[in-house]
Amino acid sequence: MQQEMRQAVANAFQQLLSEKHLYQYVEVDTSLISTVAKTIHSGMRPAILSTGRMIKRSTLEDAEAYCRGKTTVIWHPSGVITNGIPGFDAGFDPLEFELPTINTFCNVCQQRPPFNPVPESSFWVCGAGQDEFFYLGYRCQQCKGQPIRFLVRREGLKLRLAGRYPLEVLPTPKVLPKGVSKYFGNALIAHHAGQTLAGLFLLRVFIEQFWRTVPAVQKLIAEKPRANGDEQGDAYQSVLPLDFKSRFPSLKDVYGNLSAAIHAADENAVLFDDSCAKIVEHFEARRLYKI
Ligand SMILES: [Zn+2]
Minimal CA–CA distance to 6: which of 65, 77, 62, 103? Predict the structure, then answer.
């Protein structure tokens, strides 16, 4: 059971640090318990009493309870600094596990290469019960630069990404106009951190700020400074080829749907993903049409 739990905890850390964003969590997979409990139970020899009667030592439920008990111990990453934590050597019998290799975005390499754990510059803080904090250093295998620092919190079987330094940069699609693509990138960060409404707002800002770079929209604003989004959208549409408009997603439609969600305070994750996809498709089509 120890070995299986070690692996399950390491897998959860790998999934959390490679795939999840700020404040998201993963749960350690304990589906192995019933299989392991069956193995333990079937391996138990029956005891023979002095009367000659044979009894099973334990029930399958007991074996499962034993295995479940193994999930509630303290989890300690091998090699990570635990100095100054009273009682660590004396009373605890933690589950030692190896920190996994992960993949995350490297600001230097501008890619997602593998990162190795740096246990000697990682720290572990243990509160009451299963309230643990892991402050972990991870170094890029390619550039071997300054380690990225992660803060992970354990609550029961959950591991939550509580912090990351430096902040994860989410590369924006290259097809988006450089001057305004930061709004798109910030929208992704907000959405991944659970602030989808702010993400929807930033997508709308992205569209507005892009429109303001288009001469037809600039002309409209010069004549009518308070022109609203619909009017700006119309001015933008007026300069697109007919064929383009019939074949590709319209920024004006995306803008309208975003506005409706913002006014209704609708944290609509499906709309967020759909809007991102349509925006990217729109700009890919602009490139295709050499607009
Ligand atoms: Zn790197």
Answer: 77
Give the span between the Cα atoms of 269 and 259, in whole angstroms: 14
Asked if residue 195 lies in contact with residue 171, where contact means CB atoms within 8 angstroms, the answer is no
pTM exceeds 0.85, yes or no: no
Give the distance (Å) from ligand 1 centre to CA of residue 142. Answer: 5
What tens digit of pLDDT does each residue of 233-278 get?
999 999 999 999 999 999 999 999 999 999 999 999 999 999 999 9
User: Cα(274)–Cα(282) distance, rounded to whole angstroms?
Assistant: 12
Measured over the CA atoms of residue 197, residue 201, residue 204 and residue 210, the dihedral's sign is negative
Distance 148 CA to ligand 1 centre (A): 10
Q: Which pLDDT does position 282 carry in this prediction?
A: 97
Phi-psi region of 274 (alpha: psi -120 to 50; beta: other; left: phi over 0): alpha
What span, in angstroms and rounded, lies between the C-alpha atoms of 50 and 142?
A: 67
Residues 6+ apart with CB under 8 A from 243: none
* Residue 196, both tokens: 């989808």
265: left (phi > 0), else alpha (psi -120 to 50), else beta? left
Instruction: Say if residue 86 is exposed, middle or buried (CB neighbours under 10 Å; 0-12, 13-18, 19+).
Output: exposed
Q: Residue 156: which region, alpha, beta or left (left: phi > 0; alpha: psi -120 to 50)?
A: left
- 31 SS3 class: coil
**Residue 169 Cα, ligand 1 centroid: separation in angstroms?**
13
What is the distance between the alpha carbons of residues 148 and 140, in angstroms, rounded to a whole number?
8
What is the 161 CA–ligand 1 centroid distance (Å)? 21
pLDDT reported for residue 260: 97
Nearest CA among 274, 249, 248, 245 for reference residue 261: 274
